[in-house]
Amino acid sequence: MGRLTARRKVLRLGGEVPVERPDTLVVEEPLEIRVGGTALVVTMRTPGDDMDLAAGFLVSEGVVAAQHDVVGIRYCAGAVAGDVNTYNVLDVDLAGHVPPPDPSLERSFYTTSSCGLCGKASLDAVRTATRFSVADDPVRVTPELLSSLPDRLREAQRVFDKTGGLHAAGLFSSDGELLCLREDVGRHNAVDKVVGWALREGRLPLRGSVLLVSGRASFELTQKAWMAGVPVLAAVSAPSSLAVDLATEAGMTLVGFLRGPTMNVYAGAERVAQRSPSVS
Predict the structure, then answer these.
(1) Based on the domain organization, do 150 and 120 belong to the same domain?
(2) Residue 36: left (phi > 0), alpha (psi -120 to 50), or beta?
(3) pTM of the predicted model, to two decimals?
(4) Would you say 180 and 199 are in contact if contact means Cβ atoms under 8 Å apart?
(5) Contact in structure between 174 and 140 (CB atoms under 8 Å)
(6) Is 180 designated active site?
């Protein structure tokens, strides 16, 4: 697993006698993202798919929206500890037609793995204007298909099996094919990695797709899905009130508490094929 996991000694309690043994943990390290040599943000993440993370972050912030907007992404050779490259600093080169990021996007301090919005210089920058519409996406999915997705996501989580400490985001086609899965200690990073993969593969906007997240659906994750043109966002846990409001505004379908055959459809229920609902 390389730098994705690390071994630490742990004292296991609860049995007949305490047991000291090694345990496998997910790695969390800072990643500094630069654009044209200028530092933009430092985020705490699980190493791996870093270029997807940087690209997805820039999509989420409205800086880029197409494959040709990014000329190149590279690790900075000078980011070393001793004589070893830490691979914790990336520099993104934008195409000439892409304006540099607005200074309001700069974080006043590093973002944690649990909050991608912490430290934004201005809350006015939170609602980023998307270039893609999802309200007119004609995709339809069945409750049966949605119910099958969490198990498919879980089966593909290689690092979670070893650590139990990672969030996941999976991009599925409308017929349930897993197109991309990314894991990270931060749920917003996992989504950015999926979106960045899509940008680098020339797949944006992600029309006709379903994005499944392993935790709750926050305002930020809903915004990231909208920025990528995702029409259906599903979560195994609860959405926030702002997430529901944003999904409704965007014309996005938002599904929460996706567990087995049951789920709550908070917005865009017309995309989920079903019988007429009963009123209680």
Answers:
(1) no
(2) left
(3) 0.87
(4) no
(5) yes
(6) no
Give the residue numbers spanning the domain of 62: 29-125
Is pLDDT at 42 greater than 80 in this prediction? yes
pLDDT in tens, 3-31: 777 778 888 898 888 889 887 887 889 99
Task: Retrieve residue 192's tokens.
Answer: 């950015």
Q: Does some domain include residue 11?
A: no
Encode pLDDT of 128-141 as tens digits.
678 999 999 999 99
* Residues whose CB falls within 8 Å of the CB of residue 182, separated by 6 or more in sequence, listed in order: 49, 52, 168, 169, 190, 191, 193, 194, 197
Half-sphere exposure of 189 (CA within 13 A, CB side): 27
Strand partners, 171: 180, 211
Whichever domain contains 99, its CATH number is: 3.10.20.10
Residue 95 lies in a domain: yes
**107 and 164 share one domain:** no
- Give the per-residue pLDDT at 82: 60
Contacts of residue 224, defined as CB under 8 A and 6 or more positions apart, other chains included, come to: 56, 59, 60, 188, 191, 192, 195
Write out pLDDT tens, residues 192-244. 999 999 999 999 999 999 999 999 999 999 999 999 999 999 999 999 999 99
Nearest Cα residue to 183 out of 167, 171, 164: 167
Question: Structure tokens of 90?
Answer: 């990336």
Assigned token pair, 76? 């900075």
Tally the residues of the chain: 280
**152 and 103 together in one domain:** no
Q: Does the residue 8 lie in any domain?
A: no
